[in-house]
Amino acid sequence: MKVTSRAATFVARGIVALALAGASAARAQTQPPPFAGDPAAPRPRTPEAQRSAPPPSQPAPQARPTASPAPAPPADDDTFDDPKVHRRLGPRITVPPPPAPVVPVAPTPPPVVRAPPPERAAPAPAPPPPPTADTETTTPTVVRPYAPGGEEPFRPIPPRLKLGFRRFEFVQIGASSAPSGVAARETFNNVAVDVYPVSNIVRVGLSSSFGWQSGQFLVDGDYFAMQSFSLGGQYRDLGRFIPFAEAFTGVGYMRRLQFDRTIPTAFWQFGADAGVEIYAARTGYLSLAIGYLRPVNGFAVRQQFTSIFVDTWSFKIGIGI
Q1: Domain architecture of the chain: domains with CATH
Q2: Rounded to an integer, what distance in angstroms lies between the CA atom of residue 81 and that of residue 74?
């Protein structure tokens, strides 16, 4: 019995040794050769390392390897199935697909504007029914005269500029040729340009005038030049007629001719006019006025100043705008 058990033990140990040797050979055939760049691969020993290394010991008996499970598939598509290819080539590179071609968008057609439908003409009103005999006898006909609308009243523009002519009487100076010794009278004509800077209910005027002895003019007669100022009022609510009244005064130079000798003298006057301005249009009128006038002539006689004057009436006519 003892011999039989020892033989069985020996046979079992031999079977185990053969199995371990076969597993080592199979492992050596399936293990890939080491890669030069792989840090985990065993490096060859140099002669110095082999001389200094301790002698190898007897390998310990190894247990029988069990069947290992199949390797799990890669987690993603970037890794290779073969580890050697993965270590050499690295992870996979996914090339994106080419972009889709750009399709041009067709332009939006403009909105179609439709013409409005033509307007239909309104139907002509039906003619009134012919009057019957009863209507003609019972409905009276009312006839009203045509009355035009009221016209706007005429409103003239107040006077602004006037060209006037005045005629008045004055006296001569020096020795009188009349038997009574009274100075002889002489008639003067006067042309004036009147400007009215203020012309409403109240009118203010400035006048420049030149006068000369009637029938003589400048050759062998007397003449004067004068500047005047006037103040008055006017009434504008009579349509084409504007009555007015104004007072005036002025001063100037007068040349006297006596016995073929020229005598320079002073001339001034006071007066008042009353008249009416008749408008042919809104800006054109004819002026008529009658006034009282006191002309005064001052001069030197025998080293003293003396003056003569006369109270007279004057008549003035003019045109203006």
Answers
A1: 161-320 (2.40.160.20)
A2: 7
